[in-house]
Amino acid sequence: MQHVLRLLEVRDYVPVAELSEAFAVSEVTVRSDLTELARQGLVARIRGGVRALQQGQSEAGFDLRLRLEVDQKRAIARMAAAMVGDNEAVALDASTTAYYLALELRAKRELVGVTNGLLVATALADAPTITVIVTGGVLRLSAMSLVGDLGTDVLRTTRINKGFLGARGLSIERGLMDLNPDEVRIKQEMADACERVYGIFDGPKWHRSALLAFVSVEELTGIVTDSTAPAEEVEAWRAAGVDVVVAEPGPHEPLLRRPRDLRLAMRDEEAG
Known about the structure:
By secondary structure, this protein is an alpha/beta fold. 38% of the residues lie in helices and 23% in strands. It contains eleven helices and 15 strands. Strand 14, helix 10 and strand 15 form a beta-alpha-beta unit. Helix 6 runs parallel beside helix 7.
């Protein structure tokens, strides 16, 4: 099932026959697993296979991505949180790794969190000593993010100590990259507003490229990644002057908190 979710990050459709051959199991077994994924609301079942819920898009939905490489993302989040002190302002984008980082930051004191991610904001919302600033803008449902001019206007008048940004891919020549032009623009504005900028992403991102760059090597303070990152590329980035910190995933742990359903949250507030 994890393999199917990874395939649907870059493909719209995965057939039963392909999975049956790849794993040397019966098509009945494959269909059972695909039915379970559909029951969890992560894929759409169609005749002969499954498709991504956001058909026609090359991005996977937030909830799907949240379930991939969980131990690696949590290790990265713990390492990144150790770089943040009390009484600081930090920017977090709408990436799933930023969501896990937000959970780790809940224990900080007098922290200001600036984000364009609705679920990232929700993860911080009821922490008693954290002030959350949401940039505003137009909702992108697949990423649960806010993009557009309203968000960039807020960031242009804000000064932030540290920014932590996810990426779809990276290269020494182009820097950190992502797919969606609106997301790239808000990431660029976040980076410009920050005194220090860190990339936060797991090992598979090191093997990918993407359409649009948002932070160059020269603008990047550091990268926090996990031990599956390719050693040669890590050393190349260090040689280019970027501090790369490698986090070792610990034993699998239950999630501290799940993303709240925003509609239910708003309904509860209205009822109260």
